[in-house]
Prior knowledge:
This protein has 521 residues and is α/β, with parallel strands linked by helices. Helices cover 37% and strands 17% of the residues. Helix 13 runs parallel beside helix 15 and helix 17 (436-450) packs antiparallel against helix 18.
Amino acid sequence: MSRLVDEDTHGIEELAARRERALAMGGEERIARQHRKGRLTARERIDALVDPDSFDEFGLLARSERAEDRDKTPADGKITGFGRVLGRQLFVTADDVTVMAGAGGAVGMNKAWRAKQYAIDKGMPIINLGDAGGARMPDILGSTGLMSTAWPIDHAPRDRRVPMLSAIMGECFGLPSWSAALSDIVVQVRGAVYAVGGSSIISVATGEAVSDEELGGWEVHADQTGAVDLFAEDDAECLALLRRAMSYFPDNFRKLPPVIACDDAVDSPQDELTDIVPADHRVSYDMHELLAAIADKDSLLELKAHYDGSLITTLARLGGHVVGVLANNPSVTAGAMGYGACEKAVAFISTCDAFHIPLLFIHDTPGFMLSREAELRKMPIQIMRFIDALHHSTVPRVSLIVRKSYGMAHFNMSGGQMQNDQLLAWPTAEVSFMAPEVAVNVMYGRQLDSLEDAEVFRAEKLAALEQGIEPWGPAGLNLIDKVIDPRDTRRELLRAFALARGDDGEGGRSKRLMANWPKVC
């Protein structure tokens, strides 16, 4: 485009015209098509995500390097810039699906990569809004095309220097999937897809008949892969979840997590806790109720909630301070943890440790869920990777045994001699290699079969074993720091974490030994 009029000597009108064309994205019809799907455009998403009037766009006038596509690729399909969320500066990139289906061309991808690296160097969090069909063709075809647009080795490695959050808001293949796979938090809108390639490519390549939903729909990632942390009904909820998730993280690894004011009660006993948790370990309850009672009001943000619900992994606040909670849930497989729980735990611990978020473990588990499927999923490796994560974690850890804590799971839940800042227990705590009911059968099974008074014998042995699992013995040997009144749980946890942090908060700073741990789910 040449100068619009001879009088436009400084190019101001030409600049305005070019900006207007770029802001029009892929045109009215494609924008309308996006709206008919019930989805926002990339620019509308950014406006809804960031604080009002805070977005500063970079690369607005970028376009395809291919002459035939230059007038059809405003911003080259990638909108990038810097804005504020909750007053905090961060980098945002959004795929514009109205331009070449959001597929990445060389200019747009390099624009996004350069800006991300700048954000990391400056210590700014990153949010990716994904809605794209992979790399653009024919740009990526041929040796030159592939080698010039491939993922560069000098692209920022996954070392968690800044929080990275990604949203799956449309049919995402290739680049937006790679970004999500490297992110600390992933949010997926129901109806969106998160996969390597689409069903049409798979059909041609392998002959397999499968839908996009079956490849990477929300239910796949909720129940089977655990690759997505949070789910939303629509774009608005997705963007609100991103804003909320960001509130738990510091801007970068040099800073501690944000602290907010909290006027929730501290010293008042919580009589309701003994109603929530039955004293009888055979009676189930929902751990979410206990967590909601002891955490700050409305502060729980559970991650991977549908993936192996035997273990709850949730961000929360205690006295305004961020904590990461791992809690067994007796209402799912009686709290017995499977391979999915191990994957969740490792992913959660490594993320929290990288950003100085202290950890709270709450025990109520009979052990690990054993099965052939679990062994096929490499259960011994999963269990020991979980233990290895605890070995490498250097944030404060507080552990609370509410009821059952049996077998190897006791140690995975940061039990005895696991270098906790504090190990607490309720009087109802039970710690042993296995449940007394099971142990009686294992130890005396043959004798019981031959005795006339087998039930009396069994009751005597069971009573002895039950006495041996109570918390008084380990408390007497100082293996438990405190046996606490259940009603004082919130107060005791607040004290424990305050002591671990220290007056200046620096006691809560991690050594970040897990910052480059690969993402397992």
